[in-house]
């Protein structure tokens, strides 16, 4: 095991939890874009966004859509981009499953209405560090893309993302120094960490790097274990989330 002595003299990053007023907003679809064959971006507008705030790149809002039996279905999504002054919010939908919100997104048209709630709060990562290592699957790409685009010059970002093939790669712009790595695996193997973990093992962990992981829960768990047990990364330098659990609808898993 590498006990990472290079981290011992570094001040640990801080994760500040900021609460927001929880309110429901009624918005209108103003734009639809196919970012890749498997990623759909929907832009929403409305005066209800006048006080919208999202301080963390991996914040979540809730989307509410009618269910098949007349009930209301809801799912968590990352605000991909937002502009309060312009009353604009963009959301990316990974079309990897046929849930009610995905079905709504695939059938959405300009002028359609959508109800959202939140975000309830933000987890703001800060500290005297300049390196990020972002690891995730399709569901994490909205948060990864937002982090890359919002990080200022003077920082270094390495992203490792797993998708189904080259046509699912996305291009990101950033003022930070950026290195992107793509790992391919079939969607049927989205809960198998082998391919992503193999690539992660090849990437050096520079001193003072904050590691962020989000993917299917089993994949997140395996990669988190790799960093903590094999590389000796202190938990204060890592944030990991299971954004979804294979075989369980509307399920997530948090890792402390």
Biggest β-sheet: strands ordered side by side in the sheet: 5-4-8-2-3-7-6
Distance between the termini: 21 Å
| Cα Rg | 18 Å
The CATH architecture of the largest domain can be given as 3-Layer(aba) Sandwich
User: By CATH's scheme, which homologous superfamily of the largest domain applies?
Assistant: Nucleotide-binding domain of ferredoxin-NADP reductase (FNR) module
Low-confidence stretches: none
Task: Find the structural class using helix and strand composition.
Answer: alpha/beta
Helix tally equals 4
Total count of strands: 15
Q: On the 0-100 scale, what is the average pLDDT?
A: 93
Largest sheet: 7 strands, antiparallel
CATH C-level name of the largest domain:
Alpha Beta
State the shape. Answer: globular
Strand content: 35-45%
> Domains counted in the coordinates: how many?
2
Q: What pattern of helices and strands is seen along the backbone?
A: EEEEEEEHEEEHEEHEHEE
Oligomer: single chain
Helix content: 10-25%
**What is the CATH topology classification name of the largest domain?**
Rossmann fold
């Amino acid at each position: 095991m590498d006990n990472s002595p290079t981290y011992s003299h570094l001040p640990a990053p801080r994760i500040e939890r900021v609460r927001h007023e929880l309110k429901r907003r009624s918005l209108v679809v103003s734009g639809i874009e196919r970012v890749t064959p498997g990623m759909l971006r929907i832009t929403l507008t409305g005066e209800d966004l006048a006080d919208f705030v999202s301080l963390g790149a991996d914040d979540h809002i809730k989307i509410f859509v009618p269910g098949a039996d007349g009930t209301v279905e809801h799912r968590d999504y990352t605000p991909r981009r937002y502009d309060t002054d312009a009353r604009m919010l963009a959301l990316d939908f990974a079309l990897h499953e046929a849930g009610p919100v995905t079905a709504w997104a695939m059938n959405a048209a300009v002028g359609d209405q959508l109800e959202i709630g939140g975000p309830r709060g933000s987890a703001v990562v800060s500290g005297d560090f300049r390196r990020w290592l972002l690891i995730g699957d399709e569901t994490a790409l909205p948060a990864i893309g937002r982090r890359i685009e919002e990080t200022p010059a003077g920082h270094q970002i390495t992203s490792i993302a797993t998708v189904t093939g080259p046509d699912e790669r996305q291009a990101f712009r950033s003022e930070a120094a950026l290195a992107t790595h793509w790992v391919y695996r079939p969607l049927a193997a989205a809960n198998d960490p082998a391919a992503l973990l193999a690539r992660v093992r090849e990437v050096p962990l520079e001193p003072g790097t904050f590691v962020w992981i989000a993917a299917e829960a089993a994949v997140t768990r395996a990669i988190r274990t790799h960093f903590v047990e094999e590389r000796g990364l202190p938990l204060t330098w890592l944030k990991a989330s299971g954004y979804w659990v294979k075989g369980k609808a509307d399920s997530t898993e948090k890792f402390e």
